[in-house]
Amino acid sequence: MSGTERAERAERGHPAVARVEAALIAAGVEPRVRWFDTATPTAASAAAELGVEVGAIANSLVFTIDGEPLLVMTSGAHRVDTAYLGERLGGLIRRADPDTVKAATGQTIGGVAPVGHPAPLRTVVDEQLAGYPEVWAAAGHAHTVFPTTFAELVRITGGEVAPVEPGAAR
Predict the structure, then answer these.
(1) What is the radius of gyration, based on Cα positions, of the chain?
(2) 165: part of which helix (H) or strand (E)?
(3) How far apart are the first and last CA of the chain?
(4) Which helix (H) or strand (E) holds 159?
(5) Number of separate helices (H) and strands (E) present in the chain
(6) Please, is 72 exposed, middle or buried when counting C-beta atoms within 10 Å of its C-beta (0-12, 13-18, 19+)?
C-alpha cells in the first residue's frame, strides 16, 4: 500500500465522519457518505462536484442566538439574513467563530454536518430546501457529503422549518 493510499484510508476513518454515520444509523438512516478527492467546503464546490444545483446543497451554518449555538441548514442558493431570522426567532443572531463551531459540533467549518454533534443543537431548516427531491449535506469533513431529503433532514435534526431571508417565505 502506498503512502497516499494509507493517508486516504486513515482520512476516510475520520472520527467526525464516524460520529455522523453513527448518528444517522441511530436515526434510522442508512449512511451513504460520499468522499471527494478534494475538499468541497462551499455549496458551489459541492454542487459542482456532485453535478447538482447549488440550491440542493444544505449548508450547515453555525451562529449564536443570545450566546447559544444555533445551527441553520440553509439552501446553498441563499444567505441567512441574521437580522430577519433573529427577529423571527426572538433573539440576536451572530455568526459563530471557528472555536464555537468546533465546540458546538465537534466538526470544523467547511465540513459541519447536520448531526453527529456532542449535544443536540437548536436547528432551523431553510424551507427552500423542500423544493428539491434530494439534498446534500456535509458529513463531518470537508471531503464528505451525504444525500437526504428535506423531510428526513427536518426529522433527524429536530429542526424548525422557516425562511432564512425576507421574501423567501412561501
Answers:
(1) 15
(2) none
(3) 53
(4) none
(5) 6, 8
(6) buried
| 132, 52, 22, 100 alpha-carbon torsion, rounded to 10° | -90
**Residue 116 and residue 114: Cα distance in Å, rounded?**
7
Q: What is the pLDDT along the chain (170 residues), one digit of tens a residue?
A: 333 333 343 456 799 999 999 999 999 999 999 999 999 989 999 999 999 999 999 999 999 999 999 999 999 998 999 999 999 999 999 999 999 999 999 999 999 999 999 999 999 999 999 999 999 999 999 999 999 999 999 999 999 999 999 975 54
Which residues are registered as beta bridge partners of 161? 125
Give 69-125 as a DSSP string: EEEEEEETT----HHHHHHHHTS-EEEPPHHHHHHHHSS-TTS--SS--SS--EEEE
Which residues, at least 6 apart from 97, have a Cβ–Cβ distance to it below 8 Å? none
Looking at residue 144, its amino acid is T
Query: Of 60, 5, 61, whose CA–CA distance to 37 is shortest?
Result: 5
Please list, in sequence order, all residues whose beta carbon lies within 8 angstroms of the beta carbon of residue 14, skipping any fewer than 6 positions away.
140, 141, 144
Among 112, 136, 151, 133, residue whose Cα is nearest residue 34: 136
